[in-house]
Amino acid sequence: GILAIVATSCKKDDTIRYNNATMGNVVNGIFTSDQGNIFNVVEQTCPGKLDTMKRAFVICDVLSEKAGTENEYEVRLNYISSVLTKDAIFTSSLTKEMVNDPIVLQSYWVSGGYLNIYFAIPVVSDSKVVHYINFEYEDNASEAEGTYTFHIRHDGTGEVFNESNQAKIQLAYAYASVPVSSIIKEKEARIILKWKSHKIMGNTILLTETEDVKREALYSKDAYQQTPEAASAGSRAFEIR
């Protein structure tokens, strides 16, 4: 049979393209963007608490620049999402291969010394199954100097999709970051990003078909933010089959 569901939960998909949308770190409740700007939240129109997060993606309106500063602003916070942040797992330290379940990667970019991704995974809405995302760094790869290879590893811990639960299948969206500045020694380098993807045909995600995808990103120690690259189908509703 065919598993099909229309996923309309894509309101966040395009947010990383707006000028007042950025990722950054939170220290003692203070948000500093990857561009080096400090945002003091004086108004908030969305749920969520910055002081409960270590890294966050925010959308905000800049209301004013703090007097006597060049990079500190008062902002109205309109959207906030916690960012899953994990250190890379080195291939040479693995005793067995990591689980490599597929994902749908929406965007990827390098900023603030991090490799960042915005992705979606199919889940069963009322399932208690926990999914895991990790970044594997291929430290034993024979790449050219100045080239670093990372794999996105998704472990769905056995989540099963079938006709009995097809009405409950939906896409779960999330952000994740891996710090790379301690791994990359050059001032400028090339990052190769690999992952297994659900096959996408038009607006349809095929749950039963996958493909291996490889993309590249440029890293610079001197650049705070680089333009996000669309990794798959961009921002739109998907039908899942």
* Biggest sheet features: 7 strands, mixed
Query: Which structural category fits the helices and strands?
Result: mainly beta
Low-confidence stretches: 1-18
Q: Biggest sheet, strands in spatial order?
A: 1-16-14-13-11-10-7
- The SSE string, one letter per element, is EEEEEEEEEEEEEEEE
- Sheet-strand content, in percent, reads over 45%
Percent in helix: under 10%
Helical segment count = 0
Summary keywords:
seven-stranded mixed sheet
Kindly describe this structure:
- It is a single chain.
- With 241 residues, this protein is mainly β.
- Helices cover 0% and strands 54% of the residues.
- The chain is built from no helices and 16 strands.
- The chain has strands at 5-7, 21-27, 30-33, 38-44, 55-65, 72-85, 89-90, 104-111, 114-124, 132-137, 147-155, 169-179, 188-201, 204-220, 229-230, 238-240.
- A hairpin with a 6-residue loop joins β5 and β6 (72-85).
- The chain starts with a strand and ends with a strand.
- Residues 1-18 have low confidence and may be disordered.
